[in-house]
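Researcher: Excuse me, tokens okay?
***
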Amino acid sequence: MTLPQRSAAPALARPAGYGQRPVHRSAVPGARMPLQPTMGARPMGVRPEAAQPVQRPAQRTAVSFLTVTEVAAIMRVSKMTVYRLVHGGELSAVRVGRSFRVPEPAVREYLAGARTDVA
């Protein structure tokens, strides 16, 4: 005994989740739905604020940060020595989470100030 064949069921629109647009599917697989403008879509035109010249902030130079291990390798000292310098205030650093990041210019300044001339 065979079961009767079902006809293709019409596609039902599924409810949209939070922040999503509703999706309407066609009953025919592979058929494309025509694009319809969504509610609240902006008209294609010049925005009023675009007519005024845009003032951009001054471009900043990118500062690269080094880890304590990288600073220790550059200075050829132990990591504990770098931590002592940071906690003592001799070497500036930024705390990110539980670790420290040292700006590269701070390492150069510290090394330039730590130089001594041997006579």
Observations:
- The chain has a mean pLDDT of 78.
- The beta strands are 65-67, 94-96, 99-103.
